[in-house]
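Dear colleague,

Thank you for sharing your sequence with our group. We've completed the structure prediction you requested, and as agreed, I am returning the results in plain text so they can be pasted directly into your records. Please verify that the sequence below matches your submission; if there's any discrepancy, let me know and we will rerun it promptly.
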Amino acid sequence: MKKQLLQSTLAALYLEENSKSILGITRGIERETLRISKEGRLSSNTHPKSIGSALTHKYITTDFSESLLEFITPATDNAERTLNQLRDIQKYTQARLDNEVLWPMSMPCFIKNQDEIALADYGRSNIGQMKTLYREGLKNRYGSMMQAIAGVHFNISFPKLFWESLQKIKDDSSKSQDFISAGYLGLIRNFKRELWLLSYLFGASPALCSSFLEGKESKLPFEKLGEGSLYLPYGTALRLGDLGYTNSEQSALKVTYNTLEEYTEGLKKAISTDSGLYRNIGTNEDGSLKQLNSNVLQIENEFYSPIRPKRNADLGETPIDALNRGGIEYIEVRALDVNPFSDTGISLQQIHFLDVFLLYCLLNDAPLMSCDEQNISQQNLDKVVNQGRDPNLTLQKGNESVSIKTWGKDIFEQLSLVAKWLDDAHETEHYKKAINELSLGVEDPNQTLSGQYMNELKASGKDNGCFALDLANQYQNQLQSHQYIEFSESDLNAESEKSFVKQLQIENTDKLTFDEFLKDYFKN
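Please find the predicted structure tokens below.
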């Protein structure tokens, strides 16, 4: 039934008036990476001033810590251009690092103690202080080590003409933006149902440095490799499991994706509900705050979800307010590990796959999803994170238990239909090529990123950290020889200089004390 619905929708999209409607998919990438020393240790240097202001730079900022860089590409409708932009930004940054390289993995390098991880500093403005205090809250709630994990966020928006065609095909009479928001929410529900496939194919964190577990207990069946590495024999993406971006308080949240109101109301409740656990964090000895507030979520950004509905916010507007004002504008996929085999952390093949997979999630029937069904999807993901390459592993699909191979083959059959339409519209063959190549991973776990990673690690006999450091040095050399394509060095210099001017303007226009600013922010 599901496949028939997809086929009938695609048949309508093949009609001449709809056949090119998908042209103009817009994408953006946010790639995180640690700055590390040439010896493979976490950098203790502050964010380099030669790069610009982390508060206001359009393309280069920091995430949790001073050493965790985040590169941001502007939205474009050309995947190759997006990757070239990312490469240009990385080249510019790498050239301004003092004896440091960019860590090419999701799980962090050797960190002796989490106190080595310095919180990101955004200056003396109220908004800058708020960003740092938010991170102080994250540190006190979950520990700094979890925040040293890096990932790749993939943002995507489908073109207006495509939505118009799809609305006509479905004979839907609702307002255009309401139809678009409902469509993106359906995409999210289907994405969550089959997120396990992304973890299986693109999970690239089956191993870690043993320092990551210092002082923690883990019931996972880790095996040792080299002098200080641990790995799960069938693991795929430890970053997405219990060791990564999870917390017990959030697991009890009932945030669902059936309507936009349902989603935003769930988040609103979380950011306004006091948490007994976090209330006990208290304040510093000098009376200064240790978190923005003691609620389940300090702000919306603390909600750790593998995918989010998004809208660009106006000045002073919260993410929830932006969604309620204008509906969903784009989707942010947050479930991607850094790809260690790509200098940009994500490959063109992955982007082509994501185009197909997300469109497949959008075009398919998307029944409403209860919290119980979300929990089942999470259980499937947890299994794949820890045991995904086990040939005997089964997942729960509806009321039956199925193997990854069986379920994966079924998904790839449908992905190939979507890939053909995308290729025909773009007059290319790269979508079909990506689907054909990645489908091999369903048959052979060694073809997945985690499979390749562990094979390389075992073949080299190196520790996880040494293997990663070799890659970091290799990519540094490649960046040195890379010629700017989308940005020039003078473009990026100008943006860096402009960012300091913007930061100073923000600092000089603050009229409220920081306490007054926080009260006003949360009152609104």
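Summary note from our side: The chain has one domain: 25-186+194-347+370-387+468-523.

Kind regards,
the structure core
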